[in-house]
Write a structure and sequence with these properties.
Helix content: 55-70%
Shape: elongated
Low-confidence stretches: none
Radius of gyration: 40 Å
Mean pLDDT: 83
Order of helices and strands: HHHH
Number of strands: 0
Distance between the termini: 90 Å
Structural class: mainly alpha
Number of helices: 4
Strand content: under 5%
Largest sheet: none
Amino acid sequence: MRIIHLFVICALIFAAAYVYRIKMESTSRTERVQRLHAEVREQREAIAALRAEWARLDSPSRLQGFAERHLSLRPIEGRQYDQLKNLPERSPTLINPNEPDPIGAMIDTVDRDLMTSSIPASEGAR
């Protein structure tokens, strides 16, 4: 009987130590989670402060003040616009009428390259 009592007492001591270890681990993990929550809160506050600072720096009135101070720009006036019929004619030296259109040739080349890399029409119709 004494051996059984000794065994039960050892088992109880082992169980108490195991439960104590689990409690200490959960306490330390809870503290770590609380620290992480505090860090996340601090980071969110820092992000909010940075966003507010960005909004202040990006405000149109502030940028307008910088533009007026540092750039020699003037507002566009209505009389600056003209009709297309008043534009000068295109210079004949830019494009020779007897030569093919260089931009059209590049587009044709790209179209041909795309057509050769795709599935031929006879295979696609199957």
